[in-house]
Structure formats: structure tokens, C-alpha cells
Amino acid sequence: MSNLPQNALPWHRREDTWAIFIALGLVLAVSGAFFLGASRAVGAAALAIPTWSGSLGAVTAALRAQPAGPLALLLVFLVAFSAASAVIGWDVVKYAAGFALLFAVSLVVAVLGSNQTLKDWQLETPLLALLVGMALGNAVALPAWFQSALRTEFYVKVGIVLMGATLPFTIILQAGPLAVAQATVVAVTTFTAIYLAATRLFGLDPRFGATLGAGGSICGVSAAIAIGGACRAEKSHVSVAISMVILWAVAMIFALPVAARHLGLAAGPAGAWIGTSEFADAAGFAAAAALGDERAVKTFTLMKVVGRDMFVGLWALVVAFLSVTVWERKRAADAERVGLGEVWRRFPKFILGFFVASLVVTVILASLDGRIGTRFSKEAVGPLKTLRGWAFTWTFLSIGFTTRFRELTRFGWKPFAAFALGVAVNVPLGYWLSTRVFASYWLAVK
């Protein structure tokens, strides 16, 4: 396997390329199956675990109804990921064996995460995957062949492109200019606060500060990965940024719903506040759902997923530009060789896949009448959401398995302090914007 950075590899050997191929391939395959009347086959591969309580009767009944579901899901992704492995340069045999085990763990986690009691405790599948991965990863020595399948960046890229298919531009437009304005204020202010605290107060590397700032201001783990790659931050910097995101995201799952209830917030503004103050989509969904009102979930989605998450591409471009033109020029003896074309080479191409997936679904829905469009949303977009969920489950399991508690203290207290200062800015700012400046907008969301 090559040790070259992704942007130095030929296009066909990059994770971004294969994440786009695989995710868009799934979008086209699921859409084609719908129009060919083969949605039932898609439903078998897009395995959904039902909510259960007390006993596993609902789960076993679902598996009896679709006995080939787990195997079909495994084969679809195993074949796709193994093909990518062969071209990228990973050891295919080790990867396939490792992914099979990762898949088995994800099935157990998905079943546990569908338990109503754990849902009530806000321990749904993504967060549970993190906790299980961290517990096992720090308790036992993981074999090398299993570690070869812990491809956090690869899985999250596949998930993000699939997310595009579940967010048509029509939904993005429904967010309105006020939602975009609030997301802009929050993202810019929080990023600046964390970056300046990290670099000016605590003297951290600018690339480290940018990675921390992205994780705290945009879309958490995926932003830290994308922006870290765009500015060539050290791998340890990205790991610490991800750890900060996880730490604060878990804390906010419990703190924000309690605070919203204590303050007597209406569901709309409360969901928007969670959307501005949470650091991870999965954790934010859990926090918004804990309020028990669908309006909170809707306003959270508009703010976090549509509003803030969309900044990852823009932020990657800005940070790549700063890295090439400012930070590296101060360090590299041959700085004159660093051209502006490097900005494009470092731009995370999987973001383009996100927009293409969104456009594909938007065009399809626009071409259908209301009744068929509703069926398409249920029988095609629905399974794509399920497949996206599995990709994110493998992402969070991989993060958990590769997070070492002892490494969190490697850089001391400074990264934590910089991130905490960002939280101190983000939370009250989001509250003020959601309950005062744009309150009438969020209250109107039904």
C-alpha cells in the first residue's frame, strides 16, 4: 500500500474516487430498481432493524421476513469495498476478513441500538457504535487484519455522498435565507474562536487549529477529516480533533435537551439551537429526538445538516488556500514551488459526489407526479437512508476502535481548552440566534 497522500495518488486509486463510485452506484442502482419494479430486492439489501422492547420478537420477525437481508447487505458492500481495496492498494484478503468482522459487530450494535430503552437514554446506534468501539478498542489488542478494515475516512465519505441523495436541493431551498444566515454566523464565529484560541492563545500549529475549528463549527468528525486532509494536518491532529468532537457531542446529547426543557423552549427554536450547538449529526439527531416533537427534528435538520454541514466544501477550499499560500510558505524552503493548483488537488472531491447525488435525486423527483414521487421517496430514498446509516455505523465503529484514551492526553490540555472556548461561544450564540433573532422563523416550521 502506498504511503503517498491521497491527492498525490492517481485519481483511480483515491478513496474519494471510490467513495463517489460506490455511493453514486448505489443511488443509480436503487433508482433503477424502482423504475424496473424491483424495489423488493433493494429492500432486502437495505436491512433495517425495527425498534424493539422487552424481547427480540420484532427483530426476529423482521429477519424471518427477510432471511437473506444480512447476507445481501454484507455482499453488496463487501464486493464494492473489496473492489476498491484492490485498486487503491490495500490487502484485499485482510480487508475482506476485517470488514466481515466489522459488519458482524455492526449488526449486534444495530440491534442493541434499536432497543427502546437505549433510545430513551439517547444511546441510539451511531453513539452506541462509538462507545462499543472505544470500549473494545481500549480493552483488547486488535489483530492487524481487523485493523486493516477500520477505514474511517473511506466510510464517512461514502456516507456523506449517500447523504446527498437524501437531501434534494428542494429541501435545501426550503431552509430559506434566514437558516443559511444563521448557519453562516455560527460556523464563521465558532471556527474563528477555536482557531484563534488554538493558535494565538495556546501556540498550536495553524493546521491543528483549523482542524479543531472545523470539527467544532461545521459537521464534526467528517469536517475534521475533510479540513485536516485539505491543509495536510498531521494524522494525530485529526485524531485529537475527532476525540474533542466525540467528547463534546456526547456531553451535548444530554445537556441540550435538559437545558431546552428547563428554559421552556418551543420545539422549533429548541431544535434549531441543537442544530447550532451540536458537533455531530448523529448526536444532534439523538438530542433533537429526545425532545419528543418532530418539529425539533425538522429544525435541527435544516440548521445542522442542511445549513452547517454544507460549509465543509467551502471551508476545505478556504483552508487549503491558506495552507498553500500562507502556512506552508512560512515553513518550506522551496515555497515558491507551491502553486495555487495545489488548492484544487487538496480539495476533498467526495464533496462533489454529495452534490451530484443530490442533483440526481432532485431531477428524478421533479420528473415524477406526486403519487409516484411519494413512492420513490419511500421505496428508493428510504433504502438509501438506511444504507447511509450503515456507512455511518461503520464510520463510528472505526473511530471507536482506533481511539486510544492514552492518546487524548498527548497534546495536553491546550486542544481541549481551545475547543472549550469555542463551545463557550457557540452555545450562547446559537441560543440567542434561535430564540431571539430568528425565533419567528423557527416557530413557523411545521
Automatic annotation (TrEMBL):
<dbReference type="GO" id="GO:0005886">
    <property type="term" value="C:plasma membrane"/>
</dbReference>
<protein>
    <submittedName>
        <fullName>Membrane protein</fullName>
    </submittedName>
</protein>
<keyword id="KW-1133">Transmembrane helix</keyword>
<feature type="transmembrane region" description="Helical">
    <location>
        <begin position="127"/>
        <end position="148"/>
    </location>
</feature>
<keyword id="KW-0812">Transmembrane</keyword>
<feature type="transmembrane region" description="Helical">
    <location>
        <begin position="347"/>
        <end position="367"/>
    </location>
</feature>
<dbReference type="InterPro" id="IPR018383">
    <property type="entry name" value="UPF0324_pro"/>
</dbReference>
<keyword id="KW-0472">Membrane</keyword>
<comment type="similarity">
    <text>Belongs to the UPF0324 family.</text>
</comment>
<feature type="transmembrane region" description="Helical">
    <location>
        <begin position="180"/>
        <end position="198"/>
    </location>
</feature>
<feature type="transmembrane region" description="Helical">
    <location>
        <begin position="70"/>
        <end position="90"/>
    </location>
</feature>
<feature type="transmembrane region" description="Helical">
    <location>
        <begin position="154"/>
        <end position="173"/>
    </location>
</feature>
<dbReference type="Pfam" id="PF03601">
    <property type="entry name" value="Cons_hypoth698"/>
</dbReference>
<feature type="transmembrane region" description="Helical">
    <location>
        <begin position="415"/>
        <end position="433"/>
    </location>
</feature>
<keyword id="KW-1003">Cell membrane</keyword>
<feature type="transmembrane region" description="Helical">
    <location>
        <begin position="18"/>
        <end position="38"/>
    </location>
</feature>
<feature type="transmembrane region" description="Helical">
    <location>
        <begin position="210"/>
        <end position="231"/>
    </location>
</feature>
<feature type="transmembrane region" description="Helical">
    <location>
        <begin position="44"/>
        <end position="63"/>
    </location>
</feature>
<feature type="transmembrane region" description="Helical">
    <location>
        <begin position="238"/>
        <end position="260"/>
    </location>
</feature>
<feature type="transmembrane region" description="Helical">
    <location>
        <begin position="310"/>
        <end position="327"/>
    </location>
</feature>
<feature type="transmembrane region" description="Helical">
    <location>
        <begin position="96"/>
        <end position="115"/>
    </location>
</feature>
